[in-house]
Specification:
2 helices; single chain; flat; 2 strands; 66 residues; alpha+beta; two-stranded antiparallel ribbon
Length: 66
């Protein structure tokens, strides 16, 4: 197998372990709002939002390539 495929599989396995171990419910409070959500949903959501924000900032600043 190619090194990139092996590295991707290792990262995927580590991410799966991280998600499986973080299943408890956490509560976030912001002023008058209180939101309870499982960390297994929150972690990928935070990564996705971070990726989207970074991608958009790169595109808007002109450093995102074509």
């Amino acid at each position: 197998m190619k090194p990139k495929v092996i590295l991707a599989l290792i990262i995927l396995a580590l991410a799966a372990v991280l998600l499986i171990q973080n299943t408890q419910v956490v509560t976030y409070r912001l002023y008058f709002w209180s939101v309870s959500v499982s960390q297994i949903i929150l972690l990928p959501l935070a990564v996705l939002i971070g990726f989207i924000v970074g991608f958009l900032l790169a595109k808007l600043s002109g450093r995102g390539g074509k």
